[in-house]
């Protein structure tokens, strides 16, 4: 990269530009950067004052956090962009969400062998709360959603699929298109779905339904119950209620496919 | 449900609150009662239920009405319940929400859990039958009785000018006071927050103006100034507008981070076959730090600088979008060769089997197999039984 602003010719050119701009009353970029550093110091002290009075509010009150995040978004500021940012350092918002990110990743990883990398936001919420222990701060589903949005930048396929009024959180880079999503939504009511149900509700051809279900099986997101009365049922472990399923080991999971 | 009577929810002098649980819906037998979700309270003498939104709607039943009770486990979309079987209603029972019911049992549906503790306490009270030892006066109905008891309670509690909180009314008053105080704090916090945001917005506008000037080349800025500007943006959490294309998102902070990571990740990477998913790195590093954690973006930006800083690590993005940090020394050829060797030796391998062999995560072992396939060394057999790789003999 060539260094700008070096050499007699460049200095002269710069002096000329300065003169021209000062004439027209506009300020140069460099001058503004100097100005900005002063304004930044001022802002920092305002933020410190705010933090000294209200830091607790952010940590304790999830409603306040939502307001805070929305206001930041409106003015074009991302308080979670960097741990080195003022917001993070002084308000402690950063550590709250980044730690939550770690807990989310760990829960998803621990359950992946069972649900293939798909989990309901409810279950994720419950398990994260459990892992945080009695004395940790309360965490809302909005907090989880924001933490997950940040995790996406690390490229590991974190995503959210709207299903039945809430979300399914995906934590593996499985390719899920509209067809897959729609079938997941259909399965949400009972935890499983059959080819006939897909044909009836969605008016799809049998081949299209089978294709989608096969893909879900392959990705480990669905299990096949070929002994169900009537026709085979495709169950989605992600949708099992916590109370009616027991934890299985990875070895058992491997034996589950037909 | 016809065993319940309307109540004001006030406890008697000898009556004590044992436990309460919110998020409870009542059932008349198997049918949902025509009431909303509320709070159920167990005292030494009665079972009380109150509507959460409408505190006037409060009903109670003496515990002596209960014959026996049992738990009903939760199911898919169904909360856990306690089923309570009841004696026929008393002849002189005060009016309640139901004149008559065809059922002789009710259910409590615990929408916000709490059924285990409630069941335990109910068992205790039904065993001890404390209401038999400390009889209270007739159940109080609305009307003159209310005022008498209320006055009685208040006078009992006024001692030395301090009001002691007694009974449900006292508890509610405390909660209300706390809520008012919290509300006051919150509105002040919101006010201060709005003022702060106005100032933050000014900073955003200044930075936009600078970025535009840089774009339009209104004045030359040096490299140092560029780096300084980027660090200001980082402090404020403002997305890096123009400069990102030409100079990247890295700052001194990220450079330092990159060097730290270079040191810190050597050993863990070696242990894991030279490669770790970025999410793994994120967890490892942040767990080690304990506080002043890295944001996901910090990590990505730091890793992007590995190459320019000539550190022996690389950030790599697979076709699937999976991002990993890998040791420079673990070259691509080596990985592919090792994949091919292992697959040939076993005849065929799935990602899970390969993972177990190498002690890698399933995600990363799959990426290696895919890479070897891409280079033409392996081919796949994709069925519902899973994805299996074979040496490519074509």
From TrEMBL, chain A:
Record-level GO BP terms: protein transport to vacuole involved in ubiquitin-dependent protein catabolic process via the multivesicular body sorting pathway
Stretch forming the signal peptide: none
Known role: Component of the endosomal sorting complex required for transport II (ESCRT-II), which is required for multivesicular body (MVB) formation and sorting of endosomal cargo proteins into MVBs.
Subcellular localization, as worded in the UniProt entry: Cytoplasm
Gene Ontology CC entries for this record: ESCRT II complex
Name of the protein in question: Vacuolar-sorting protein SNF8
Origin species: Sphaeramia orbicularis (orbiculate cardinalfish)
Family: Belongs to the SNF8 family.
Pfam families: EAP30
Subunit structure: Component of the endosomal sorting complex required for transport II (ESCRT-II).
Keyword set, alphabetical order: Coiled coil, Cytoplasm, Protein transport, Transport
UniProt cross-references to Gene3D superfamilies, sorted A to Z: 6.10.140.180, Winged helix-like DNA-binding domain superfamily/Winged helix DNA-binding domain
From TrEMBL, chain B:
Keyword Coiled coil: yes
Coiled-coil region: none
Cited CDD domains: PH-GRAM-like_Eap45
Record keywords: Coiled coil, Cytoplasm, Endosome, Protein transport, Transport
Domain GLUE N-terminal positions: 1-138
Main location: cytoplasm
A Pfam family annotated for this UniProt entry: Vps36_ESCRT-II
GO biological process, one term: protein transport to vacuole involved in ubiquitin-dependent protein catabolic process via the multivesicular body sorting pathway
The family this protein is said to belong to: Belongs to the VPS36 family.
Protein name in the entry: Vacuolar protein-sorting-associated protein 36
The species this protein was found in: Sphaeramia orbicularis (orbiculate cardinalfish)
Lineage summary: Eukaryota, Metazoa, Chordata, Craniata, Vertebrata
Gene of this entry: vps36
């Amino acid at each position: 990269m060539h260094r700008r602003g070096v050499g007699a010719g460049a200095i002269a050119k710069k002096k000329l530009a300065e003169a021209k701009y000062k004439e027209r009353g506009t300020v140069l970029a460099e001058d503004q950067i100097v100005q900005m550093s002063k304004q930044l110091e001022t802002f920092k002290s305002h933020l410190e004052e705010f933090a000294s009075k209200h830091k607790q509010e952010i940590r304790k009150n999830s409603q306040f956090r939502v307001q805070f995040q929305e206001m930041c978004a409106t003015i074009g500021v991302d308080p979670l962009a960097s741990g080195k940012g003022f917001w993070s350092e002084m308000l402690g918002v950063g550590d709250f969400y980044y730690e939550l990110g770690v807990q989310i990743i760990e829960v998803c990883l621990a359950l992946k062998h069972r649900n293939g990398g798909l989990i309901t936001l409810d279950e994720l919420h419950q398990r994260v709360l459990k892992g945080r222990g009695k004395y940790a701060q309360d965490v809302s589903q909005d907090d989880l959603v924001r933490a997950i949005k940040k995790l996406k930048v690390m490229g590991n396929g974190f995503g959210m699929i709207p299903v039945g009024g809430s979300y399914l959180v995906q934590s593996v880079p499985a390719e899920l298109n509209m067809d897959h999503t729609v079938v997941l939504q259909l399965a949400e009511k009972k935890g499983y779905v059959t080819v006939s149900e897909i044909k009836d509700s969605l008016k799809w051809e049998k081949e299209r339904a089978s294709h989608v279900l096969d893909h879900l099986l392959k990705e480990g997101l669905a299990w096949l119950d070929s002994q169900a009365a009537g026709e085979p049922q495709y169950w989605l472990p992600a949708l099992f209620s916590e109370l009616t399923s027991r934890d299985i080991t990875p070895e058992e999971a491997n034996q589950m496919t037909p | 449900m016809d065993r319940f009577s309307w109540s004001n929810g006030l406890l008697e002098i000898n009556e004590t609150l044992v436990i309460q649980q919110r998020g409870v819906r009542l059932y008349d037998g198997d049918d949902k009662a025509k009431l909303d979700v509320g709070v159920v309270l167990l005292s030494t003498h009665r079972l009380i239920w109150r509507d959460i939104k409408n505190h006037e709607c409060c009903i109670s039943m003496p515990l002596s009405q209960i014959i026996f009770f049992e738990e009903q486990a939760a199911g898919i979309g169904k909360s856990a319940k306690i089923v309570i079987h009841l004696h026929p209603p008393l002849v002189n029972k005060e009016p309640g929400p139901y004149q008559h019911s065809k059922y002789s049992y009710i259910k409590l549906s615990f929408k916000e859990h709490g059924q285990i503790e409630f069941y335990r306490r109910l068992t205790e009270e039904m065993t001890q039958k404390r209401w038999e030892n400390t009889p209270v006066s007739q159940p109080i109905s609305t009307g003159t009785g209310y005022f008498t008891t209320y006055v009685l309670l208040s006078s009992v509690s006024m001692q030395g000018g301090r009001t002691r909180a007694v009974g449900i009314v006292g508890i509610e008053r405390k909660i209300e006071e706390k809520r008012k105080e919290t509300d006051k704090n919150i509105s002040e916090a919101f006010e201060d927050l709005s003022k702060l945001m106005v100032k933050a917005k000014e900073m955003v506008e200044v930075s936009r103006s600078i970025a535009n000037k840089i774009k339009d080349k209104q004045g030359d800025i040096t490299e140092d100034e560029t780096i300084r500007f980027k660090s200001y943006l980082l402090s404020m959490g403002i997305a890096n507008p123009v400069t990102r294309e030409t100079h990247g998102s890295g700052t001194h902070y990220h450079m330092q981070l990159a060097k730290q990571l270079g040191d810190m990740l050597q050993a863990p990477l070696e242990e894991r076959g030279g490669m770790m998913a970025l999410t793994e790195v994120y967890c490892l590093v942040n767990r080690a730090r304990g506080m002043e954690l890295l944001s996901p973006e910090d990590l990505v930006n730091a890793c992007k600088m590995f190459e320019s800083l000539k550190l022996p690590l690389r950030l790599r993005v697979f076709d699937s979008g999976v991002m990993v940090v890998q040791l420079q020394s673990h070259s691509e050829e080596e990985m592919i060769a090792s994949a091919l060797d292992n697959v040939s030796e076993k005849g065929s391998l799935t990602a899970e089997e390969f993972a177990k062999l190498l002690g890698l995560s399933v995600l990363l072992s799959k990426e290696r197999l895919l890479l070897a396939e891409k280079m033409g060394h392996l081919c796949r057999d994709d069925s519902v039984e899973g994805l299996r790789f074979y040496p490519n003999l074509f």
